[in-house]
Amino acid sequence: MDGTVVLGGPGAGDWTGGVFTLLVKRQLGVSLIYYNSPWRQKEPGRKPAPVELSSYMGYSVTSGHYHSTNPNDMMYVGGAPHANGVGRVVLFYQETGGYLKYRDNQIIEGEEQFSLFGFELATVDLNNDGYDDLIVGSPLHYEKSRAGGAIYVYMGKAGGITSGSKPVRITNEKESEEECAMTTCTESRFGFSLSPAGDINLDGYQDLVVGAPYEENGKGAIYLFHGSADGIVKKYAQRISGKEIDPTIKTFGHALSGQMDLDGNGYDDVAVGSYQNDTTYLLRTRPIVHLSATLKVLPAKFNLSQPPDCVIPGETTKKYCIDLKLCMSFTAKPLNSFNTPQSILYTIEIEKGVSKKRALFVNPGGTIKKSSTKLNQQGVEVCTTEKIKLISSFNDKLTPISFTVDYNLLDIPYPELSQCLSSGVPDINKYPVLVTGMDQSTTLLTKVNFSRECGANDICESNIQMTTDLLNLTL
Known about the structure:
Layout: E1 3-9, H1 12-15, E2 18-24, E3 32-36, E4 60-64, E5 75-80, E6 88-94, E7 100-109, E8 120-124, E9 133-138, E10 150-154, E11 168-171, H2 177-183, E12 193-198, E13 207-212, H3 215-218, E14 221-225, E15 227-228, E16 231-232, E17 238-241, H4 242-245, E18 252-260, E19 269-274, E20 279-283, E21 288-298, E22 301-302, E23 321-332, E24 342-350, E25 359-361, E26 368-375, E27 382-390, E28 401-409, H5 417-423, E29 433-434, E30 443-450
Parallel strand pairs: 21-29, 22-30
Antiparallel strand pairs: 1-2, 2-3, 4-5, 5-6, 6-7, 8-9, 9-10, 10-11, 12-13, 13-14, 14-17, 15-16, 18-19, 19-20, 21-23, 23-27, 24-26, 24-28, 25-27, 28-30
């Protein structure tokens, strides 16, 4: 089977540099055939190199289908971080059996002097439209006297990526100066390393991981960005600090490699290099659990027009009562391989935020109840019922009584690195995380009205009428 390998040669032509494609063949007598981009300033019969001397073209390389969804229509990209002082990225195409060529509008220039635009490259289809997207690292990017690095995201489309394409730029600026000072973000070199992460959260969109190996005084950190229908989500989904893994760590995030499921749990993992520690760390992705919950009330209303009929052991008088039924279930991906039982913690509160409560739990009393339940299998609903009683006397019989439920997975701390080294790698499926965001709420709210005998819609409306008549008065 034939395959193409893309290599960079930044030292070619007095460090002009070039990009090489190697067509590897397993046929007898042929080991490999290579083609190169122009790397000389003057080359008979060919366009000159797209960069000048000492540009380091090929310092980074990648390839993808940026302008076509045809799997045979590949383009090759080389980064030249020293070109023209600002850095360049060049997209090359290859005619069948020919050398790599470029068009003038496929040379992308960096924005700032000495920002190392093109230092690192990655290819990811972030919006799942069939066109690959190009990510360019610029680890010395700066603006308004603040450095820290940046990445540029160029979205692939029909017609391809050109010098006129407008990228999405994401910098390493923090939400506050205090946060930046704490993480030494201005020295982080965000964008020093890049890698496709695979579909980490299994939402159908590919994700990206970015290294900032000199953040936090050289200890390093990595950032995970999700893809979406609109492309990259600019706010990172997760930041992993190197010092949280190993207090002695240095340059965590210097190199990255993702898009591989090494432990076979259905989720892609990420390998992170820390060259000053001579160590590679494997970050395994924990399974993602979706929780579903419903809250139902029976009867649906408090009917105070009828005598109370709820008998409570130990109480001499009958009460007005309702049953509050909470049902929960979970799903996780992959559906056919994840069936680790899940322990759920939940809190039910009556009239949250109200000082004078009108209802109580029958057992054990009070207005807040904390408990737990266990879900043994995906898709199998487990229910629990709580009986609620009205207090004996209160004035407000118009405002509904609210019930709030907050729930979450039982958090089982993952073992420390030292424990893993001594007792072996733990089963990652025992440490799932709950999916969060717009499509997953962990709070339920329901309200119970009082029956007001105000018609079918139970909405009471004033119907005050007045008639007048003039009297035959004589002054």
